[in-house]
Amino acid sequence: MYSTETEHKREGPSLPSSPTEANPLHPSPPVPPGPPRSQRQYERIGESTGTTFIQTLIHLLKGNIGTGLLGLPLAVKNAGLVLGPVSLLCMGIVAIHCMRLLVKCSNRLSERVNRPFLSYGEAVFTGMENVSWLRRLAPWGRWMVNLFLIITQLGFCCVYFVFLSDNIKQVVEAANATTWDCQVDHANQTALAGTSFDSRIYMLFFLPAFILLVFTPNLKYMAPLSLLANLVMCCSLVLIYYYSLTNIELPINLPLVGKAKDYPLFFGMAIFAFEGIGVVLPLENKMQKPEGFGRVLYTGMGVVTFLYISLGTVGYLCFGDTIAGSITLNLPNCWMYQIVKLLYSFGIFITFALQFYVPAEILIPPVVDRVSGHRRRIAVGLLMRALLVIFTCCLAVLIPELDLVISLVGSVSSSFLALIFPPLLEMLTFHTDGLSPLVITKNVIISGVGLIGFATGTYSAIMELIIRNNPPHSHNLSPSYMLQ
Q1: Biased-composition ranges for Basic and acidic residues (predicted)?
Q2: What is the pLDDT of residues 442-457, one digit of tens each?
Q3: 3-state DSSP call for residue 179?
């Protein structure tokens, strides 16, 4: 999932080039005042042409499709066969609404301050400055947004460590028993044969490769690999859909509504998947005709919501209570689907560098600027990159549960970025325009749901993590844990 999750999300190397997104915690000097956005007729910043409707749509799609999608069948299990898809639909509608709110507020605020465009953090800063009694706290508002952006991106990197270790572990340790017959075990989870190593060992094995990957000096060098990663991930998704649709066993005897204690875990996993709000402002700014971004948003997120609901439902129908933290872990022990795991893992590996870009660009330059000498600056920059990767690996080693990492990251940071901040920003931006009581009530409800989801989701994920690592309760472990 590209990340969103920041000012670019998962797989788009071109997105971080936005000048206001490079270092939000230490912002660059203000853009010189110029004609308001409405008077510029959407003139592009620093270029005469921008992205077309189709190009922007593709960026939006790949910015919202990643590892979160593969975990949605387990999310539907936590919510129930009926409540899960309905909740995903409602969450999709609210997430799209909040994305639209962010774009609308950013446009209005950029006109007020005579700026061409504003980033997420700058929009919150400007919105708080728009309210006299909040003006002193405006820098804290920008700091909070950018902090959650960093947490989200590093959280994605942790998820990638766990995802790769789980999937490569299955492929490697089941290699001797893998056949070309994909109907050997209809119930299907890949059976591990022979010696089994802890998934943490595989994380440490991948650590040097990730460090070398993030040493890439410029994301433009990753563009060919990024394109290849997108293609192989699309092919993998087609095969996952095919297997899930053709292997649903009847009659279906699954709970329509899940247990109440598991619903917060559903919330965290679902909002993790939907948290693409960080990508909308850079994409809207880069369009040739930004006034048409609404059509891009509704079309793209409509497709994304359909994919989320369909794969979540079909995956749960196919694998039932045995569904794992990623549906790839349930695929049969045959070479075609083992190759699917390898291809998707390759795509996630390449995406790691793109997800890592934003926190690196935020955290590393202030440290490098304190060092004199070109060679020393390069050495310090590389060292900082290596330390950040090691930090994310350590977090993944501490929480080697794919579903819980996804739920925790979603609950902690994605709930704020996707649900809590946008409605509050609308009230700050348009408070002088006389918002109707209905709009205020709507915004309070959305932000309130986000806060409740943050609190309950974080608590449930932490408690479930404690239970799974408590030996006396080992007989209650879920299938996703048993595959670690």
Answers
A1: 1-12
A2: 999 999 999 999 999 9
A3: strand
Domain count, the chain: 1
Q: 158: domain range? A: 15-29+48-482
Q: What are the tokens at 481? A: 């844990």
pTM listed for this prediction: 0.80
Task: Give the CATH number of the domain where residue 168 resides.
Answer: 1.20.1740
Position 196 in a domain: yes
Tell me: the pLDDT tens digits for 244-301?
Answer: 999 888 888 899 999 999 999 999 999 999 877 878 888 888 888 888 899 999 999 9
**217 burial level (CB within 10 Å; 0-12, 13-18, 19+):** exposed
List the one residue out of 271, 258, 269 whose CA is nearest residue 320.
258
From residue 21, alpha-carbon distances to 14, 304, 313, 452 in Å are 12, 25, 36, 29
Closest CA to 310 of 259, 264, 245, 263: 245
Residue 36 belongs to some domain of the structure: no
Residue 88 lies in a domain: yes
Identify the burial level of 28 via C-beta atoms within 10 angstroms of its C-beta, where 0-12 means exposed, 13-18 middle and 19 or more buried: exposed
